[in-house]
Amino acid sequence: MRSKISGKAIIATSGGVDSTVAAVLAHRAIGDRLHCVYIDTGYMRKGEGEGIREMLGKIGIAVDVVDAREKFYSALRGIASPEEKRKAIGELFIRSFEEEARKSGAEFLVQGTIAPDWIESGDGIRDNIKSHHNVGGLPKEYRLKIVEPLRDLYKDEVRAVGKALGIGEKAYSRQPFPGPGLAIRIIGEATPEKAAVLQQATSIVEEEIESSASKGECKLPWQYFAVLLPTRTVGVLGDKRAYGYTIGVRAVESIDGMTASYSELPHSLLARISNRITRELKDNVNRVVYDITSKPPATIEWE
Ligand code: XMP
């Protein structure tokens, strides 16, 4: 006999494949008892909120956009260490979920945690490589009961689940995007000004790589993005000295994110990315570098 299950749940989607698949699964299971939110932390990609609303709207899931930008900016003020940033973000996420859950009367929190998240966050046996925002970043006490339907799956398996659920190729084949977002791609303190620069650089990298792949000039990498480095270097702008930041471009091939090799992108594509970034962000960026390290020894994200 099936037991009667009741209660409401909340899920926060980040636009990445894990939280999207978890949201769809949870919605299939409990329908309108699921409250789906998108927390705009100020460290998300440009236009992400509308994109998620549209994507999930097509499958009949309504998404509430929560503007938490100022809260995240002030929580991260003055924090430069990657682990401290991750923990501050994890804590603020859970507080934001609790606040939203109170409004809708939810007692469960559904999360898109997958196997590499908890493996890399350390489980007492393994070393803590980095605290994934939905694992090691959580504060000790939280009131919501956590449900993680994808906990034992790897990324390729999550995509297969998405495909089986019929969520559309665009949604299930989308590149991964980490919950802490651009905050862990701004090396050092993640100020709102730097977030704005990185949002712009990220969309240039995505546009150029996706356009090249659609023309058959290269294969679409498993993951591709920009990082903003904190040191400034000397350049020339017109006939004047410039002193700007460096953008790192990262593109990798992987199956499950546990290991990765850098993508051999065509030089013509790298040149287009570099030209656009230094032209469109000329007041802030005067140097672009391409990351040619594999995982290990590097990780995919820089923090
Ligand atoms: P790393 O940098 O550990 O990344 O090689 C492996 C994959 O995990 C993603 N990543 C995260 N995803 N929360 C997430 O949801 C996180 O805190 C987090 N940190 C890294 C990363 O983008 C890559 O796909």
Task: Provide structural commentary.
The protein is of the alpha/beta class. It contains 9 helices and 9 strands. It has helices spanning 17-30, 48-58, 69-76, 82-104, 115-120, 155-164, 169-172, 192-214, 267-280, and strands spanning 9-12, 34-40, 63-67, 108-110, 145-147, 223-237, 240-253, 261-262, 285-290. Strands 3-2-1-4-5 form a 5-stranded parallel beta sheet, with helices on both faces. Strands 6, 7, 8 and 9 form a 4-stranded mixed beta sheet that branches. Strand 2 (34-40), helix 2 and strand 3 (63-67) form a beta-alpha-beta unit. Helix 1 crosses helix 6 (155-164). It is globular, with a radius of gyration of 20 Å. The model has no long low-confidence stretch (mean pLDDT 92). It binds xanthosine-5'-monophosphate. Xanthosine-5'-monophosphate binds next to helix 5.
Determine the N-to-C terminus distance.
Answer: 48 Å
Order of helices and strands: EHEHEHHEHEHHHEEEHE
Name the quaternary structure.
Answer: single chain
What is the number of helices?
9
Shape: globular
Percentage beta strand: 15-25%
Kindly state the percentage of residues in helix.
Answer: 25-40%
Structural class: alpha/beta
Q: Tell me the Rg in angstroms.
A: 20 Å
Low-confidence stretches: none
Main sheet makeup: 5 strands, parallel
Tell how many strands the DSSP assignment holds. Answer: 9
Average of per-residue pLDDT values? 92
Ligand roster:
xanthosine-5'-monophosphate
Strand order of the largest sheet: 3-2-1-4-5
